[in-house]
Amino acid sequence: MYRITIQGRLDDNWSEQLGGMAISSGLEADGSPLTVLTGRLVDQATLYGVLNALYGLGFALMSVERVPTEESL
After folding, report:
1. What's the number of CA atoms in the CB half-sphere (13 Å) around residue 34?
2. Residues whose CB falls within 8 Å of the CB of residue 30, separated by 6 or more in sequence, listed in order
3. CATH 3.30.70 matches 2-68
4. In sequence order, which residues have a C-beta less than 8 Å from that of residue 53 and are 6 or more positions away?
5. What single-letter DSSP state applies at residue 31?
6. Which residues pair with 3 in a beta bridge?
7. pTM score > 0.70 for this model?
8. Strands across the sheet with 2-7, in order?
9. pLDDT tens per residue, range 3-36
10. Angle of CA points 34, 37, 42, to nearest 5°
11. What CA–CA distance (Å, rounded) separates 22 from 40?
């Protein structure tokens, strides 16, 4: 399970092209838009594919986190 945060707003219609990740938008403390993608990716190759797609769309990457799940504890 991963949580990827990018600077800017990404429409949730991109979910399927980005590994089926859930997409939610919000604002930073300074009012700048940000988007959080959360979801289970099958392997690191899929993660790199999502990151490359976001780079190709021109988004600045703020963070990538591996989120522990019940199965991994």
Report:
1. 16
2. none
3. yes
4. 17, 18
5. S
6. 38, 65
7. yes
8. 22-27, 33-39, 2-7, 60-66
9. 999 999 999 999 999 999 999 999 998 999 999 9
10. 155
11. 9
User: Residue 12 phi/psi, 5° resolution?
Assistant: -70, -5
Q: What is the pLDDT of residue 45?
A: 94
Which two structure tokens, joined as six digits, stand for 34?
A: 């940000």
**3-state SS, residue 65:** strand
Q: Which residues contact 14 (CB under 8 A, 6 or more apart)?
A: 23
How far apart, in whole angstroms, are the C-alpha atoms of residue 37 and residue 58? Answer: 16
Q: Read off the tokens for 73.
A: 């504890």
Torsion from C-alpha of 9, 14, 17, 18, nearest 10 degrees: 40
The answer to whether residues 27 and 33 touch, using CB atoms and an 8 Å cutoff, is yes
- Residue 23 pairs with which residues in a beta bridge? 37
Quick check: 1 pLDDT over 70?
Answer: yes
